[in-house]
Known about the structure:
Blueprint: H1 3-19, H2 24-44, E1 58-69, E2 72-82, H3 92-95, H4 99-114, H5 118-127, H6 135-153, E3 162-174, E4 177-189, E5 195-203, H7 208-220, E6 228-231, H8 237-244, E7 249-252, H9 254-264, H10 268-282, H11 287-301, H12 306-315, H13 327-333, H14 337-351, E8 356-357, H15 360-379
Parallel strand pairs: 3-6, 3-8, 6-7
Antiparallel strand pairs: 1-2, 3-4, 4-5
Amino acid sequence: MDAKKDTIIEALLEHLIENGAGDIATVFARTFELAMQIERERFLHASHYERNPDRQGYANGYKPKRIDTPAGSITVDIPKTAGHVGEPFYPQSLERGRRSVRAVMLAVAEMYIKGVSTRDVEAVMREFGIESLSSAQVSRASKLLDDELAAWRTRPLAEIRYLILDARYEKMRDNGVVRDAAVLSAIGIGPDERRRVLGVSVALSEAEIHWRAFLESLHQRGLRGVEFIVSDDHAGLHAARRAVFGAAHWQRCQFHLAQNAIHHAPNHAIRKRIGAELRTVWNANSLAAAQIALTTLVNAYRDTAPKLADWLERNIPEGLTVFTLPEPHQRRLRTSNPMERGIQQELKRRTTKIRVFPNEASLERLVSAVLVEIDEKWAADTKGYIKWDYQDA
């Protein structure tokens, strides 16, 4: 370590002597900056101002960034580089393991290369300390991340008893036209009692052919033992589910059923109360009691709102399958909210910055990266999500 770095460390130690642990955030920030500077020198194969035939570029100033740490929120200066080929420099120490951040960077980089929304894209790139990129740099960086994510999407699966399916839409460019792409995802609960993200698929349609291909891919990867499936009434899912997992019971999401009932209500007064009325069905203490409550509700609207009564009679029974499960499991599986809260909200938070993805590969890369992070977090949970020994649940 050179004399300049020794001087910085000595100054930090003096700061600790004078201020104690009360200002540990400042010491941490300056130490972190020093670590990133060392990382930049290793990346460039040369120290600051060093003349070296092996140098791979040069230092290009700093970009301030606010980060949250155990020592509190701090602002650090991120070192930047220029004049080199290959993947752009970004400190691993700052975003180690954050695949989704790399995926966002690659998405905006692809947009930058293609000249899409240049001003907005450059603003996002500057958040990462990147001034410019070449198509070759983007291609090399994408290849590294895509191989890792493809391995995760095709990894072997095993026994899963409960399966939760959902879909969302993102904007994507296809042959120069902005279109809606369906993002299908699946989570499951297996014998280890923990949630796991099983897979994801991106295509321009949510029709049966997409759902069927997705479910068949899960089956081909070894998914077995599915007893119970929870989802909304997605287009194409009915036929695909029956074809691939025909023996599994299906629970239609009660939350989305209630939302649909509101849309079928003929006037404002009914729309205001139908949700509460359906809760008397959902909260029944048995399947028989729920069916009685539903019959009462249907009869109450038979004369005043016959179309609503017919809709309730035809659709609400699909939301009562959960009563066939052990009582401690019912609360977890009456809706697809575990997917909505755990997956979809996080995907929305990450994809908002992109707005319109430049292509299908870019969209698949980002959603896969986000789901890998969620899956790793769930795998590390010390507490089971579903207890199979439900007498103690």
